Amino acid sequence: MIKVVVADDNKILLEQIVNAIKKSNKLDIVGIANNGEEELEYIKCFFPDVVITDIEMPKKTGVEVIEIVQNFEKVPEFIVITGGASGDIMKKLYSLSIRNILYKPVDMTKLIEELESIGKIEKEQEIIENKQTEEKTFFQKIKRLLKK
């Protein structure tokens, strides 16, 4: 399951996103936040795989949260939602480690596809890592046999 935190101060949009995510059997919502401080606490507590965040929120903006989280040991993927942002904010976002920017009104099908693709990539990386470990073990055994 892909762990997701959703943060937006627009309660209607937040509810729409949560309802869309709940329809997927690949996604698990671990936090729903109405402001940046709540969002940051959920990230610290639950180590989500992905965070969906609005840019403009009370207490901390989505950009501030992303900047803070960049220093964490496990940095989640970020999908940023905006109704439109200034050029400076957009430059800042692109300089940070974010996965995508979606514009309001949010296309829920596109959002769910984006979220589920994160799990697909993680699964592929896990398979590659397992294969590399198997190959390393195999070559270590061969090396030992050749030494005998």
Could you explain the architecture of this structure?
The protein has one domain (2-117): Rossmann fold. The chain contains five helices and five strands, in the order βαβαβαβαβα. It has helices at 11-22, 36-46, 62-69, 87-95, 108-147; strands at 2-7, 27-33, 50-54, 77-82, 100-103. Strands 2-1-3-4-5 form a five-stranded parallel β-sheet, sandwiched between helices. Strand 3, helix 3 and strand 4 (77-82) form a beta-alpha-beta unit.
Structure summary:
Helices cover 54% and strands 19% of the residues.
Topology record:
Layout (H helix, E strand, L loop, with lengths): L1 E6 L3 H12 L4 E7 L2 H11 L3 E5 L7 H8 L7 E6 L4 H9 L4 E4 L4 H40 L1
Please indicate the percent range of residues in DSSP E strands (runs of 2 or more): 15-25%
Largest sheet: 5 strands, parallel
The counted number of beta strands is: 5
CATH architecture: 3-Layer(aba) Sandwich
State the helix count: 5
* CATH class membership: Alpha Beta
| Bulk shape | elongated
Give the SSE string: EHEHEHEHEH
Give the low-pLDDT segments: none
Between the first and last Cα atoms, what is the distance in angstroms?
46 Å
Q: Percentage of helical residues? A: 40-55%
Q: What is the CATH superfamily?
A: Response regulator
Q: What's the number of domains?
A: 1
Q: CATH topology, which one?
A: Rossmann fold
Q: Strand order of the main beta sheet, please?
A: 2-1-3-4-5
Radius of gyration (CA) equals 19 Å
**Mean pLDDT over the full residue set:** 83
Using brief descriptors, characterize the structure shown.
148 residues; alpha/beta; Rossmann fold; five-stranded parallel sheet; 54% helix
